């Protein structure tokens, strides 16, 4: 079959070219593609670089007849055209974020595992020991720890590409960036002792384009990361934190980063909270935000317009539609669309950050 011959030739070229990584990324696209995969209120964010390198941040819920695993595999293989995941990242140790890392590695090649470090125990999850054992086995005890201030090593072409860790294990990058004029919007909340507060935050830059994803980082840690100075600066695309739940998305962060666009990885009955949506409406530069799901318990007038919501029904009837942001090769423009056939909404990358 023609496509098999193309793949064989591609692999041979990779081997003969002797790339430093000793493994071959999938075919170059020229664009930076960011897929937001519907895992029903969990998280699965697949990023494919212009060099064909792939990063999967989180992997949704396990079980459910492999629902989330199959959705990830569909986007990775059938939509993005990948033959492997180069970097599988765990933002934090909650079931809806690393639930399929082990199963993914059993059915699809995963070359590198990254996380915030593996704790000995997790009080909020009685099944943690079994799940972390599966993760250790899948990663062959070779997962690498990311710390605040570090960079995730990625190949970069003509347009510079970087991914920097801004928070990890409750440590944050501080003392960098412009002063945060919204610092006074932080109203301290009770300390969060759960693993949410230890989430990895990653800032991707591709030329002038900026994308921020913070896992399930919660209120007080968000504030520590962006006050009194904001190391993220102003960004273009924001993955709304913690599925849009109100224990996250501190206005001191959201208003300071001033995103032009946002994607919310919520479920029909998880996330998409009214207070978070109100904060998004306050953002001065916001043009559109997209939701993976309509919040079925909230007035439609408070949510994104229907054309910016990927899935409108309940979990039982959900088709698992995904969202993709595609950044041009020069990093100066990007589009966001729902699914393969959705309208591509176009945006200009902001000039100053």
Principal-axis shape: globular
Low-confidence parts = 1-24
Proportion of helical residues: 10-25%
Q: For the terminal residues, how far apart are their CA atoms? A: 48 Å
Quick one: biggest sheet? 9 strands, mixed
Brief synopsis:
With 353 residues, the protein is of the alpha/beta class. The chain has helices at 2-17, 67-79, 95-98, 101-107, 128-138, 219-226, 251-257, 274-282; strands at 32-36, 45-48, 54-57, 84-89, 109-115, 144-145, 161-168, 171-172, 201-206, 209-213, 237-240, 261-264, 288-293, 309-311, 323-327, 333-338, 345-348.
Topology summary:
Elements: H1 2-17, E1 32-36, E2 45-48, E3 54-57, H2 67-79, E4 84-89, H3 95-98, H4 101-107, E5 109-115, H5 128-138, E6 144-145, E7 161-168, E8 171-172, E9 201-206, E10 209-213, H6 219-226, E11 237-240, H7 251-257, E12 261-264, H8 274-282, E13 288-293, E14 309-311, E15 323-327, E16 333-338, E17 345-348
Helix pairs in contact: 4-5
Q: What would you note in describing this structure?
A:
The protein has 353 residues and is α/β, with parallel strands linked by helices. It has a single domain (30-348), classed as Metallo-beta-lactamase, Chain A. It is built from eight helices and 17 strands. It has helices at 2-17, 67-79, 95-98, 101-107, 128-138, 219-226, 251-257, 274-282; strands spanning 32-36, 45-48, 54-57, 84-89, 109-115, 144-145, 161-168, 171-172, 201-206, 209-213, 237-240, 261-264, 288-293, 309-311, 323-327, 333-338, 345-348. The strands form two sheets. It has a nine-stranded mixed sheet with strand order 6-5-4-3-2-1-15-16-17, covered by helices on one side. An eight-stranded mixed sheet has the order 8-7-9-10-11-12-13-14. Helix 6 (219-226) links the parallel strand 10 and strand 11 (237-240). The chain is globular and about 45 Å long. Residues 1-24 have low confidence and may be disordered.
């Amino acid at each position: 079959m023609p496509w098999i011959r193309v793949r064989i030739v591609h692999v041979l070229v990779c081997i003969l070219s002797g790339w430093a990584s000793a493994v071959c990324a999938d075919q170059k696209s020229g664009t930076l593609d960011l897929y937001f995969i519907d895992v029903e209120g969990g998280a699965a964010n697949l990023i494919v670089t212009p060099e064909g390198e792939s990063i999967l941040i989180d992997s949704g819920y396990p079980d459910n007849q492999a629902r989330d695993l199959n959705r990830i595999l569909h986007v990775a293989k059938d939509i993005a055209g990948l033959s492997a995941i180069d970097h599988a990242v765990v933002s934090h140790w909650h079931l809806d974020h690393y639930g399929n890392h082990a199963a993914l590695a059993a059915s699809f090649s995963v070359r590198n595992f990254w996380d915030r470090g593996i704790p000995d125990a997790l009080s909020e999850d009685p099944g943690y020991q079994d799940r972390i054992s599966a993760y250790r086995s899948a990663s062959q005890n070779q997962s690498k720890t990311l710390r605040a201030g570090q960079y995730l090593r990625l190949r970069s072409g003509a347009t510079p590409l970087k991914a920097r860790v801004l928070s990890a294990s409750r440590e944050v990058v501080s003392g960098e960036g412009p002063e945060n004029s919204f610092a006074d919007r932080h109203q301290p909340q009770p300390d969060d002792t759960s693993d949410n507060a230890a989430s990895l935050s990653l800032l991707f830059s591709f030329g002038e384009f900026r994308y921020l994803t913070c896992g399930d980082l919660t209120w007080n840690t968000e504030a520590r990361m962006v006050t009194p100075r904001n190391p993220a600066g102003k960004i273009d695309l924001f993955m709304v934190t913690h599925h849009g739940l109100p224990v996250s998305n501190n206005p001191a962060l959201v208003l300071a980063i001033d995103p032009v666009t946002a994607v919310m990885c919520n479920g029909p009955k998880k996330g998409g909270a009214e207070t978070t949506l109100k904060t998004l409406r306050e953002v001065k530069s916001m043009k559109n935000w997209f939701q993976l799901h309509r919040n079925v318990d909230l007035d439609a007038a408070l949510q994104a317009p229907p054309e910016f919501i990927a899935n409108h029904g309940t979990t039982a009837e959900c088709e698992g539609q995904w969202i993709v942001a595609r950044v041009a090769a020069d990093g100066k423009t990007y589009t966001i669309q729902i699914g393969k056939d959705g309208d591509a909404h176009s945006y200009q990358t902001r000039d100053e950050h």
